[in-house]
């Protein structure tokens, strides 16, 4: 297939592009390569992709509607995976405008481009953050998610609503994927594992929020990518049993689906840090701090729908995933 993937300079986007290229797909990669975090890491990800046959890079923000439509017109992708977004819960507290531009205006442009260029299936990144103030565990796509606790989460919920509207009005099959705390090689410098590793190797203390009582459904990058590929290949269909008297938030009468992709095994933050310390062979000095605004104490993914519909659930334990990240980090940054 010819697949247009947005966010290919990013962590998940680059990994997905490699997987699609490896199976013989052609990938049109869009990214603005903004400076939210280290641009050299983004360029390094792109350099590895540009060395492969079948990859075409287009450098543009999604907010540039004219250039985005031109990319669709020039390349005519059959399917689209939208991973480009302004990420980060904490950054949304101080830079809300970045989330409106990239996550709302940009996503509207993606929907319009899919509508006008005959795209067979749009898969897009949502987030476990949409569960917000929900406390019933595990989190299920069949729960209502109407109480976000950060603007980032609100924009991801809005993406799901926007996608449903286009599925309903124009028959565009859309699938939203709620990712749960993704980690692994080539990861994001603003994520805990990356920051912890950097600080420990440099002999600096780490900030442990919520006094270490966080529980997260840490999900390894290869598991995330496998889930994306499988859902991309399974075009969303209507739910014939959907009933407005008892509406199911995870499906619709339109060709619209939502899935969680999480490890289905929450891990306490202190255990996560212990495994990292073992992999590094060093102990961390810890600054224990209260929970930050916009954060949630726990995440836990119900992946039953993913298993039923595409025959897959993430399986990589943190012991394996963290070891792989540490090996990559040391190699990339020149630690012996």
Q: TL;DR?
A:
The chain has 336 residues and is an alpha/beta fold. It has ten helices and 13 strands.
Describe the structure in your own words:
This protein is an alpha/beta fold. Helix content is 40%, strand content 16%. A 7-stranded parallel sheet has the order 3-2-1-4-5-6-11, sandwiched between helices. β2, α2 and β3 form a beta-alpha-beta unit. α1 packs parallel to α2 and α8 packs across α10. The longest helix has 21 residues. It is globular, with a radius of gyration of 19 Å.
Strand order of the largest sheet: 3-2-1-4-5-6-11
How many DSSP H or I helices?
A: 10
Structural class estimated from helices and strands: alpha/beta
Uncertain stretches: none
List keywords for this structure.
336 residues; seven-stranded parallel beta sheet
Write the layout of secondary structure elements.
Blueprint: E1 2-6, H1 11-22, E2 26-31, H2 39-50, E3 55-59, H3 65-75, E4 79-82, H4 96-116, E5 121-127, H5 151-170, E6 174-179, E7 182-183, H6 192-201, E8 206-208, E9 215-216, E10 219-220, H7 221-233, E11 256-261, E12 267-268, H8 269-280, E13 286-288, H9 304-310, H10 318-333
């Amino acid at each position: 297939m010819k697949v247009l993937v947005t966010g290919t300079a990013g962590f998940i986007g680059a990994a997905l592009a490699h997987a699609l290229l490896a199976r013989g797909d052609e990938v049109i990669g869009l990214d603005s390569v903004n400076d939210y975090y280290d641009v050299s890491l983004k360029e390094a990800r792109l350099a590895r992709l540009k060395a492969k046959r079948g990859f075409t890079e287009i450098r543009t923000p999604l907010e540039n509607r004219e250039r985005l439509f031109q990319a669709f017109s020039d390349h005519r992708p059959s399917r689209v995976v939208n991973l480009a977004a302004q990420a980060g819960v904490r950054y949304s507290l101080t830079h809300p405008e970045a989330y409106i531009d990239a996550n709302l205006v940009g996503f509207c442009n993606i929907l319009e481009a899919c509508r006008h260029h005959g795209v067979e299936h749009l898969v897009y990144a949502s987030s476990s953050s949409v569960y917000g103030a929900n406390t019933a565990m595990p989190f299920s796509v069949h729960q209502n998610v109407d109480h976000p606790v950060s603007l980032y989460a609100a924009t991801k919920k809005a993406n799901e609503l926007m996608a449903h509207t286009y599925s309903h009005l124009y028959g565009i099959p859309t699938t939203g994927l709620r990712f749960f705390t993704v980690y692994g090689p080539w990861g994001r410098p603003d994520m805990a594992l990356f920051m912890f590793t950097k600080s420990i190797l440099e002999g600096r203390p780490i900030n442990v929020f919520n006094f270490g009582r966080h529980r997260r459904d840490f999900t390894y990058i290869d598991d995330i990518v496998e889930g994306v590929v499988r859902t991309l290949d399974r075009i969303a269909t209507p739910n014939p049993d959907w009933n407005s008297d008892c509406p199911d938030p995870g499906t619709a009468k339109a060709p619209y689906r939502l899935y969680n992709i999480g490890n289905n095994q929450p891990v306490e933050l202190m255990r996560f840090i212990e495994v990292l310390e073992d992999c590094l062979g060093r102990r961390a000095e810890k600054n224990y701090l209260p929970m930050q605004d916009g954060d949630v104490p726990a995440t836990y993914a119900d992946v039953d729908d993913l298993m039923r519909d595409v025959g897959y659930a993430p399986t990589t334990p943190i012991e394996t995933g963290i070891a792989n990240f540490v090996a990559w980090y040391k190699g990339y940054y020149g630690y012996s």
